[in-house]
Amino acid sequence: xTTTTTTRRSSLVTxxxxxxxxxxxxxxxxxxxxxxxxxxxxFQLLLFVYVFGGAIATGTDYVNYVAPxxxxxxxxxxxxxxxxxxxxxxxxxxxxxxxxxxxxxxxxVTGHVVASTARNLVxxxxxxxxxxxVGFRPTAGAWExxxxxxxxxxxxxxxxxxxxxxxxxxxxxxxxxxxxxFIALLPFVSGAFVPTETMPDALRVVAExxxxxxxxxxxxxxxxGTPIGNSAWVSIAWCVGILAVAAPTAAMLFRRRxxxx
Amino acid sequence: xxxxxxxxxxxTDEVPSGMAIEVHGLTxxxxxxxxxxxxxxxxxxxKVLALLGPNGAGKTTTVRILATLLRPDGGRALVGGCxxxxxxxxxxxxIGLTGQETSVDGLLTGRENLTMxxxxxxxxxxxxxxxxxxxxxxxxxxxxxxxxxxxxxxxxRRRLDLAASLVAAPAIMFLDxxxxxxxxxxxxxxxxxxxxxxxxxxxxxxxxxxxAEADLLADRVVVIDEGRVIVDGSPxxxxxxxxxxxxxxxxxxxxxxxVAAALLDDNHPVVDREDLTVGLAIDNPWxxxxxxxxxxHIGLAPLSATVSQPTLDDVFIAFTESQxxxxxxxxx
Lengths: 261, 332
Description:
- The complex is a heterodimer.
- Chain A is mostly helical.
- Helix content of chain A is 78%, strand content 0%.
- Chain A has helices at 2-29, 31-52, 62-91, 94-99, 107-133, 142-169, 173-185, 201-208, 212-224, 231-259.
- Among the domains of chain B are: 21-94 and 170-239, P-loop containing nucleotide triphosphate hydrolases (Rossmann fold), CATH 3.40.50.300; 244-309, 2-Layer Sandwich (Alpha-Beta Plaits).
- In chain B, the strands form three sheets. Chain B has a six-stranded mixed beta sheet with strand order 6-7-8-3-9-10, with helices on both faces. In chain B, strands 2-1-4-5 form a four-stranded antiparallel beta sheet. Chain B has a four-stranded antiparallel beta sheet with strand order 12-13-11-14.
- The A-B interface holds A 14-15, 18-19, 21-22, 25-26, 29-30, 92-103, 258-260 and B 8, 67-71, 89, 92-93, 95-97, 99, 101-108, 112, 116-117, 119-122, 148, 164-165, 168.
């Protein structure tokens, strides 16, 4: 049955390409959402650097300490947009049309994942640019940049799949966006804004054992030359682990949600 | 003739039973609530079937099962000879669906919606653009083609939705309440589009609450209520079951009414003392002429005499009332 599998694979690629194009148009046209996903993290960056930064002792220039964390926050805000878009497809009628057509069942989700990941990476680049303007001074060479972008992309991809799950689980568009803001809060209980040693013991255990902390440590290490330790491997393990669980879960939820809705 | 958009579609000519749609003993429950209790229906290729029933009768559930969106609990449904459960992929190549909720993308323009669907149907970008242009013209949407769909009126959205289901020129179309909530002008435009489909030999299954709509469009009407088929027949045959034409004579006062009722007693008059009318079944216009002649003979002139066809409303009321428990009769 090689022909069948080939046809199925090619139909996934072609159908996904069309639906990625659709999601990309959505991103460009929902200017308010796009603006929020960029302005919120930038606002937060400025808030932390100029308002709180002076009072937080990190042993370095605070903008250098906080910039990698802000990048992760940006990915969190992006998650809300993805969850909302996935949920809108289910709660409005378009999914019925796509499902009554002979297209690859995963193409609709793939379209969202690819377009959202791309949007998050563009927003990340813009946030980095603003950080550079306000004094972020990375010391990374070309390879370190490549590695940092790689780790961040992996994180963005993992977050995007989790957002898809939230979009699939939520009963309404509002709930979907509410769920996803939890992701945006994750960096606050991590080493992204303050060193974890300053937290109460119980919180510190949480902060040090959630994915954002090792990813921030890795990004800092790569961009600013601080020690990385085993953070890089822990980060990759987290992201790959999330992907390995989230992608099949999303596929399963999608089938279930669209079967007997 | 080879159509340019045939790559993901195929014709229904090869179906052995010859029926475009076949449904046997279809059942479906949502949780504990049974929605379909054994629906049977058949539609011949190129015919229009109207599924008529009140809200909650099971119309939409039936359509969703036929459109491969919902699994039935029991029974079988075939579209173009393909089982909608075990051969869903093949069935999808044959069908187009316009649901109650408009299923187009609000952020894209009308043209982009249709082009996107054309590409998903593998028409190729050029052909998809041409097809979109054709359909926009057909649905009278060229003026709004490049506006985002969320700026469309209800009627425009519905027409775009109809166009979206026609992209691949499906052999079988499902239209779930295609004109619900539309103003008369918008409704007429949708009817014209459906008429166009009928002219092209497309098999159509449409659901409606409007009896006039079923009467106007359908070759065959299936009335369902509470998940069961209660009547199945041509619009004409259903009307025949309810009665022939009806004449209604209105009188000035109760005395005249009584005199007329007594005179016409052999015609089984239905006397309405509130409206001061006498209703009579008549076989043909000459029959009415004869009745008026008898009144004239005794010097009694009715205020008015009107003749009407029994509508599908009469059919619907007659059949649903007779099926329901006594307690709910006349509740509305």
